[in-house]
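During the reporting period the student researcher (J.K.) took over the structure-prediction task from the postdoctoral fellow and processed the backlog of single-chain submissions. One of the processed entries is reproduced below for the supervisory committee.
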Amino acid sequence: MEPPSLGLSFGALAGLLFLAAFFAGSETALMSLNRYRLRHRANEGNRGARLAEKLLAHPDRLIGLILLLSTLVNVAAPMLVGFIALRLGGEFMVAFGAGALTLVLLIFCEVAPKTFGALHPERLALPAAYIYTPLLLLLYPFVWATNLLANGVLRLFGVSPQQASNSLSSEELRTVVAEAGAMIPHRHQQMLVSILDLENATVEDIMVPRNEIVGIDVDDDWDRVVEQLRQSQHTRLPVYEGEIDRIIGVLHMKQVVHELARGRLDRDALVEAAGAREAYFVPSGTTLNTQLVNFQRDKRRMAFVVDEYGDIQGLVTLEDILEEIVGEFTTDPATMMHKDVHAEADGSFVANASTTIRALNRSMRWNLPTDGPKTLNGLIVEFLETLPEVGTTLKLADYMLEVLQTGDNAIKTVRIRPPDLTPP
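J.K. obtained the following structure tokens:
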């Protein structure tokens, strides 16, 4: 039998080099695919994405197939180069051919295709999935035997061959949102991150403090009660006897507005209307994401926050939680400033000391400590370990805080100078 011609041999060598480049590039491309984008395209009906997703469901089989094929190519190519070199010039040409083949394999069959696969994974991986799927069915017995031996070696070193989970933690998802860049508007990024932050905050962080709860005391003079109802800016009001802990229920204004307008509302009718809707209580440690689900499940919009002894500590509403996600409903996001903070001409800010630190940080873009007390008053008192006098100044987390007003055993107002106004 005559040996094949040099032209045929060079053609076969070119084909082997092309296959080596394809196997190297497609392997990198398949492993570099964004799994979530791949799933999205598969759900849209892209057949290549569906095939690639099935292949990647068992990466050990896919890698075994690619390495089996690339090994065959990488063994056949040097043999063919040796044959061509002997035909062209003897043993000297064999050494030259081996060196040339090494350079070609490195540049054109490894570095270049793998770089392309890493930079443009979908352009190479999705078409490759059409090729690897039937090849895997055809060569499955060889792939299965190879993987069986390889997984056995891994187990000897204490490594489980099971595929790692592709699910993202909340912190990883937060990074994905932050890295989205122009693909997601900045405002939407803020909302997505705020949703993730709901699990890190509790109802105690955003509640209206007990002393600021607006409600109806049925033991008050009736004319005062009527005046409160007429001037109320709230659609729901807690009704109680003497003090907030003796709560009767929650009054919806639509229950009494008609009788109030006609002057026919009396104390008994008010108590009966309030008692028709019992108060809803939640523990102070309930996270915001849990409470949001609870509000939806129980068809509620308002809850009273209680401590471990059952005493009411504050009030939280569905709107409060939604504002944690989208910001203040009544404020332009571009010029957002908390309602209890007022800017001064010198660049400082005067704030109500009962305002929660979390609300200040969110609306003012500050970084006051949040790992301790929930309010500005509590933060200062804890730091000083005493109720300060008016004029007391302290520095917390690079913010200069000056006590402007005190009363009722608490700080009332504070002047805050952000770090850019704080002298070194």
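The committee noted the following: Residues 59-89 form the longest helix (31 residues).
J.K. will present the remaining backlog at the next meeting.
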